[in-house]
TrEMBL record:
Ranges that cross the membrane: 6-37, 49-74, 96-129, 141-168, 188-206, 227-246, 252-270, 282-302, 333-356, 363-381, 412-432
Domain Na+/H+ antiporter NhaC-like C-terminal: 146-427
Lineage: Bacteria, Bacillati, Bacillota, Tissierellia, Tissierellales
Any Pfam family the entry gives: Na_H_antiport_2
Keyword DNA repair: no
Cellular component GO terms held in the UniProt record: plasma membrane
Listed name of the protein: TRAP transporter large permease subunit
Domain Putative Na+/H+ antiporter N-terminal: 5-90
Cellular location(s): Cell membrane
């Protein structure tokens, strides 16, 4: 029976453990052991295969650590605080103007200056006074963050997009389907369109006024402050551009981040004695995610080595009756369950790729459709999951004064606006490409 397949058992264990709020790393490790043991591999062999597979995401993990160090440095210079003051002065009481700015800054944090969510707890608290005056519903801002943090890496192969799409390429190739990186961004644009539709809906629906109390805001109203941009802030901006240019030239994100850090050290934005603090800051910001990447790759390696993939594919093919529509629906729902539990699209890719590639190939899906379904399935975990950076980051800033609920004000709105449109295109669009 399909329910007794090692992969199915391990995925159920993974989902249950994540729902019980066991840390993702521990849940992945236990699930990998479950897959190996139920496949008859034994403890020792399972662990050997698991550890051997972790190296598959070494490049991704290193990218996260170095980008974390760069983000820590940028925050330390006060550049994000300068940006918050500037935003306060240009908004002029228009909540839609602020919404657009939040989207653009969020998009830049994953592409031009790859600092990811590290800027949010610094940028948002000074803006809360301005948002309260405008009676801006913070769910509107949460929607903006969701789009800005997520849509770029799905559709654009730059910075975090290079990590995500490179991870898809490597995982798909490891699962037995040879593709080139260009195939991914040339097809994931439809996911970006779906998210844009969700964004427009969210901006309109949450544009109604909402009252907030003025409490616990020990920050100065930035709209009246004089902005003083120092040399270190310009050098920090240049460092971000260096990271982007080197990454595009060499197709190596770790090299780009390293070049940016070296530039900041040479220009003395980062003092020699502060290098250890910067590296520690990078590990604190991104170390957890980096280890999740490594463990997810090990889990995928156990699944591939167990031999259970072929059995699952054959059984699923018989149940689905060869129907592409039933197949895309099943894989999309399975992806939702896995990614909502894990809470990271990046960590999910190796897991879903190991299952999707052989099943989708047997159902007759094209390589373009397969990479699209993997990208969508993985992205589902970033919007709506309580354990996702895309939800945790915005809540960290918007709940500075204790008036923004993580589940109902961040997770639920993002799920409605993004996961529902993504599931729709995830089910139907692969039938046409």
């Amino acid at each position: 029976m399909i329910l007794f397949n090692p992969i199915v058992i391990s995925v159920i264990v993974l989902s249950v453990l994540c729902l019980l709020k066991l840390p993702v790393m521990a849940a992945l490790l236990i699930s990998a052991l479950t897959a190996g043991l139920s496949a008859g591999m034994g403890f020792s062999n399972t662990m050997e295969v698991f550890v051997a597979g972790m190296g598959g995401n070494a490049n991704t993990a290193l990218s996260y650590i170095l980008l974390g160090a760069l983000a820590f440095t940028i925050n330390k210079t006060g550049a994000a605080d300068i940006l918050a003051k500037k935003i306060s002065q240009v908004v002029r009481g228009n909540k839609f103007t602020l919404a657009i700015i939040v989207i653009l800054v969020s998009m830049a944090s994953g592409t031009i200056i790859p600092v990811h969510i590290a800027f949010i707890p610094i940028l948002i608290p000074p803006l809360l006074i301005v948002m309260n005056k405008m009676k801006m519903d913070r769910r509107m801002a949460a929607i903006c963050f969701g789009f800005g943090l997520k849509a770029p890496y799905i559709t654009i192969p730059i910075a975090y997009g290079a990590i995500f799409q490179g991870l898809i390429k490597d995982s798909v190739n490891q699962a037995g389907l040879n593709i080139i990186g260009d195939l991914i961004w040339k097809n994931t644009w439809m996911a970006g369109v779906a998210m844009f539709i969700g964004l427009v809906f969210g901006l309109i629906y949450y544009s109604r006024d909402r009252e907030y109390e003025e409490r616990n805001l020990d920050v100065v109203d930035s709209s009246k402050e004089v902005i003083k941009v120092e040399t270190k802030h310009w050098l920090t901006l240049i460092a971000g551009i260096i990271a982007l240019v080197i990454q595009l030239k060499t197709e190596s994100l770790p090299l780009g981040a390293l070049a940016a850090l070296i530039f900041l050290i040479i220009t003395r934005v980062v003092k020699w004695n502060d290098i250890q603090e910067v590296l520690d800051g990078g590990i604190n910001l991104m170390g957890f995610i980096a280890f999740v990447m490594l463990i997810a790759a090990g889990y995928a390696n156990v699944i591939n080595t167990s031999g259970a993939v072929t059995e699952l594919v054959d059984a699923a093919f018989k149940i689905l009756g060869g129907s592409k529509l039933a197949g895309s629906f099943t894989m999309t729902i399975l992806g939702l369950l896995i990614t909502m539990g894990i809470g990271t699209s990046f960590g999910t890719v190796p897991v879903v790729a190991a299952i999707y590639v052989p099943l989708a190939t047997k159902l007759g899906f094209s390589p373009a459709a397969i990479v699209f379904m993997i990208a969508v399935a993985a992205a589902l975990g970033d919007a709506g999951s309580p354990a996702s950076d895309t939800t945790l980051g915005p809540t960290a800033g918007l709940n500075f004064d204790g008036q923004h609920d993580h589940i109902w004000d961040t997770c639920v709105p993002q799920f409605i606006c993004y996961d529902i449109p993504l599931m729709i295109v995830g089910i139907f669009w692969p039938l046409f490409i």
